[in-house]
From TrEMBL, chain B:
PROSITE patterns reported for this sequence: ATP_GRASP
Domain ATP-grasp: start-end pairs: 95-281
Record-linked NCBIfam families: rimK_fam
PANTHER family: COENZYME GAMMA-F420-2:ALPHA-L-GLUTAMATE LIGASE, RIBOSOMAL PROTEIN S6 MODIFICATION PROTEIN
Single GO term (MF): ligase activity
Annotated source species: Amycolatopsis melonis
Name of the protein this chain belongs to: RimK family alpha-L-glutamate ligase
Length: 97, 291
């Protein structure tokens, strides 16, 4: 299980530009990060740092695959426009029906 | 999760099944959210609000059992119940309980050593099926045809498990079946769909590629499912049945507490998520009325 990744939401341009308490408040956001009136929530891949698309309404436990390297991530939090992910869990011997 | 929800769906990861369930629950006006084990911990510790019920859908048997036990201890009803999960996660407990309660089941023994497995094979007559007590999706399930295959199995087991921690295992008579077995989805006390699972492999798990086809829910299927739910309580189950070609009678192979249904629903056309959401809504009304 990997460490937590803090993700920046792509808010509408009118939304407050707050991120998470752990984000650098002076960070310069790019157009890609803020988007153009998009409500899709993106994150960065924990392996290759490419943008992940967690969709419009990610649920905890949802698996998001990196479009660049294929690494799977699990959404561990999705509230107030902030999404966190960890590396997706691997199949274990006690998994099943 | 800052607002209390009606249903907290405990997950290891969100599968299509849980996505369908969330949609169905919300479609009934219930509030529903998914929770990882740490979220359940927050509820238990009082730092997150308690839901009206916990729907246990963890892939991990260990996590499913512990979140259900702790939720119930905290006064939160769990579906399925912790007691039901304990039985469903242990094929050995099922064999003992089925025998005790007269539920037709292949003859089965617990084996604690390789020599025990050999004795069971002689007692039951070869071939026999050896099953880990708590494995799923057909993992570790083997058919032993006699002492030679037993020696091969023992050798493989010893190389991976020198201390013998894989024991006890369940040794079960091999039931010759008509090219398929049956998976019956039970909601509450009622079987809602039965499917035949066909495979070229003697194991007919859909995880191993078995195809599915809807079949009639007969009186004997209904009776067997009732016997099982009388034992483990009403809930959401996948009951596996097999017809013995010698006497054409059905036997209960096992009962599963966390059946998958997204792929098979597309084949048989029964909307399991909607039916389960109805059941959950009804149970929540019951829990609230009893509170």
């Amino acid at each position: 299980m990997g460490g937590c990744s803090l993700l920046r939401a792509v808010f509408p341009a009118s939304a407050p530009r707050s991120c998470t308490p752990f984000c650098d408040p002076d960070a310069e956001f790019t157009d890609r990060e803020w988007g153009e009136m998009s409500t899709a929530i993106v994150a960065n891949c924990l392996v290759c740092d490419s943008a992940l698309d967690a969709g419009d309404a990610p649920e905890k436990g949802e698996i998001v695959e990196c479009g660049s390297c294929g690494q799977e991530h699990e959404v561990t939090g999705a509230e107030a426009g902030v999404v966190t992910v960890e590396l997706a869990p691997e199949v274990e011997e006690d998994w099943g029906e | 999760m800052t607002e209390p929800v009606d249903v907290l769906v405990a997950v290891t990861m969100l599968r299509p099944e849980e996505r369908l369930l969330l949609d169905a629950l919300r479609g009934r006006g219930l509030t529903a959210a998914t929770g990882l084990t740490r979220d359940i911990g927050a509820v238990l510790n009082g730092t997150a609000p308690a839901p009206a019920a916990l729907l246990v859908r963890n892939l991990s048997h260990r996590d499913a059992a512990q979140v259900a036990r702790r939720a119930e201890a905290a006064g939160i009803p769990a579906l399925n119940s912790a007691a039901a999960l304990d039985v469903c996660h242990d094929k050995g407990l099922q064999a003992l309980l089925f025998a005790r309660h007269g539920i037709p089941h292949p003859r089965s023994f617990h084996a604690y050593t390789d020599e025990d497995v050999a004795r069971c094979g002689e007692e039951l007559g070869w071939p026999v099926v050896v099953k880990p007590l708590s494995a799923s999706w057909g993992r570790g399930v083997v058919r032993l045809t006699g002492p030679e295959t037993l020696a091969a199995w023992s050798g493989g087991r010893e190389s991976a498990d020198a201390a013998g921690k894989a024991f006890p295992v369940l040794v079960q008579e091999y039931v010759e079946k008509p090219e398929h077995d049956l998976r019956v989805i039970v909601i509450g006390n009622q079987p809602v769909v039965a499917i035949e699972r066909r495979s070229t492999d003697w194991r007919t798990n859909t995880h191993l590629g078995a195809s599915v086809r809807r079949t009639e829910i007969t009186e004997s299927i209904t009776l067997l499912c009732k016997q099982v739910t009388d034992l483990v309580g009403p809930g959401f189950y996948g009951v596996d049945l097999v017809e013995d070609v010698r006497d054409r009678q059905l036997r209960v192979l096992e009962v599963n507490a966390n059946p998958e249904f997204a792929r098979s629903s597309r084949e048989h056309g029964v909307n399991i998520a909607e039916l389960l959401a109805d059941h959950v809504a009804e149970r929540i009304r019951g829990f609230l009325a009893a509170a």
